[in-house]
User: Which sequence fits this backbone?
């Protein structure tokens, strides 16, 4: 547990280092259990043993500190909306479908129940494109990039999409969706939909490309200085250093902060769950609703969010700001992936 806590501090991009960004809750739980149980089974502790316990306690506290912002004990980063113009609201359902999964009916049921303005499906192949084709009747504005490598994306919108296109920012086989969305009020917002490749055996030996894609989008959003929404399966946890860096570089807010973990993967293993599917947004929005939806067949839980465009929120919500060191780190990561 001590090694698992210390390794990510090295800031190395190797998958076997970055993987320990994920199980902070599990590491903290096991460490705390060891701290509680050890005195019950061993009463002849010497100096080395006490030092080990002290190090384990420090690791438990550190892991808790890293996760604390994503608990209801922390102040909410995104304010709750108390009204707002109904025509200035936007809702999104984001779901990693699991390409091999064939339970399309379960997802369609959740879409019908929650009635989102936008639907983003990550990991679809041609089968999923056909299975969701009926959505074009209610959500006629689409961007469709099905792929057989688990990195396809399908976007369906009942709101008008402007200048919608697919781009390959870092890797030739990993697409992202770039568009503007016109709200019912006429206000346009920037939309970016992502699903970068994770650092994991069989996927990528390092996190460099994932991090670079996130940071490229973050820098672009910051430069646009416009109302913005970034969503998708980021293959990164809410409490990672890269996530913090992305939010600081982009200036976007995380509705999880002050509300909860909202674990989305794995839906099939209750003790091994991480918050991988994200929705970030600019300070122009307040939150109407944010929920993790029920299991429906995929290995990810879907996420539903409803936001209210309220320009006065900019004056009352603090925008994250990157330091000079963070800007330099982001540029180095992007350069390393080039």
Assistant:
């Amino acid at each position: 547990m001590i090694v698992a806590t210390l390794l990510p501090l090295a800031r190395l991009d190797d998958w076997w280092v970055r993987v320990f960004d994920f199980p902070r809750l599990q590491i903290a739980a096991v460490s705390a259990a060891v701290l509680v149980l050890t005195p019950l089974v061993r009463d002849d502790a010497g100096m080395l043993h006490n030092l080990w316990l002290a190090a384990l306690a420090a690791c438990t506290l550190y892991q808790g500190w890293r996760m604390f912002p994503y608990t209801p004990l922390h102040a909410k980063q995104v304010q709750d909306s108390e009204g707002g113009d109904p025509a200035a609201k936007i809702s999104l359902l984001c779901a990693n479908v699991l390409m091999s999964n064939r339970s399309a009916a379960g997802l369609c049921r959740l879409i019908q129940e929650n009635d989102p303005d936008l639907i983003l499906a990550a990991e679809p192949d041609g089968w999923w494109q056909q299975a969701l084709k009926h959505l074009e009747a209610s959500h006629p504005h689409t961007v469709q990039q099905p792929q057989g490598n688990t990195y396809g994306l399908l976007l369906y919108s009942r709101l008008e999409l402007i200048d919608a296109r697919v781009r390959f920012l870092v890797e030739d086989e990993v697409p992202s969706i770039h568009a503007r969305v016109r709200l019912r009020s006429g206000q346009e917002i920037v939309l970016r939909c992502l699903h970068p490749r994770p650092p994991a055996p069989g996927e990528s030996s390092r996190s460099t490309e994932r991090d670079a894609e996130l940071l490229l989008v973050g820098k672009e959003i910051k430069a646009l200085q416009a109302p913005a929404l970034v969503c998708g399966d980021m293959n990164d946890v809410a409490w990672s250093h890269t996530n913090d860096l992305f939010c600081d570089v982009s200036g976007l807010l995380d509705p999880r902060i002050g509300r909860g973990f909202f674990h989305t993967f794995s839906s099939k293993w209750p003790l091994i769950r991480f918050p991988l599917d994200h929705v970030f947004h600019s300070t122009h929005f307040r939150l109407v609703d944010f929920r993790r939806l029920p299991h429906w067949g995929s290995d990810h839980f879907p996420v539903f969010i409803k936001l209210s465009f309220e320009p006065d929120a900019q004056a009352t919500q603090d925008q994250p700001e990157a330091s000079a060191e963070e800007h330099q780190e982001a540029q180095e990561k992007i350069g390393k992936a080039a």
User: Anything to note?
Assistant: The longest helix spans residues 47-67. The chain has two domains: 2-70, 86-337.
